[in-house]
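ugh finaly. both done.
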Amino acid sequence: MKSSIKGAMKRIASYEQLKKEILADEMQSCVVTYGEGEEISRPEYDFHAVRKAVRDIDDLIRGNRVAIHVANTTIIVPEFERTIGECLILMAQLNAEKAVLESLSGKSPRTRHSRSFSGVIEWTETNYDREECRKALRLITDEITVLQLALDRVNLTEIIEVPDDLG
């Protein structure tokens, strides 16, 4: 079956939700509680059928995940001339660098401190150009935006082969 990468991701989420519902239903129907002398009313429950349904869903999840992983290692994001997987790693690295730049750009240029035991006043000053830091932050934020849009486009437009849906 053909699907976009994003479609495969959505399908995985849907399968995981279905599996969660099946397992929740199972927990309700796999046991019966009754009082002494009461007539036992057993809910419908087929252990083997539930196990098969869960295995079938797991097969679909695994198949879709494998298809996505193959796509991530083979499909090139043209704007960055890297695979999707490389771009995902780059995205994490850029976000980590952005967090550092956000912290640096928020520091005061000069901060006063007092030592409580001696009363001596100390100063802490930034040892970098805060404007340069802010400029670097704007640039990296823009790069992250461009990368995210490129990844979104590829995830929506590239078609991959995924397992057939549940029957």
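ok and the 2nd:
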Amino acid sequence: MRKVVLDTNILVSALWSKQGNPFRIFEMLFVNEIALYYTDEIIEEYSEVLCRAKFGFSKDRVESLLHELKKNGVLTDSAVSAVVFLDETDRKFYDAAKANDAILITGNTKHYHDQPFIMTPLEFLLTFGT
């Protein structure tokens, strides 16, 4: 099973619309086509961002989603890399993917260094989709 780390923007996009590639990736999690790897720090960011009023997601919906992600995903630790980031909040996703030989899926590839394990939703689906 392919291991993935999802940047928060993928979850936001998937919750906003059932159309599009982020939602297709989201569905793959729940039919066990891919395995989500996460850290406590990643879950904290998911919670903080998804609960922002500007998105309009209910707290119950967010809590239910996070419960399912934790239940079906793999909690992991990762060492902090020495890679330089313009936005340090991106490091946790990069480090979790790198440490677990996982694919980091993000809608913001420009935030990350060009690495073969960092993909947009479309790139991931073209490479590993069913």
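summary for the 2nd one i guess: The chain has a mean pLDDT of 92.
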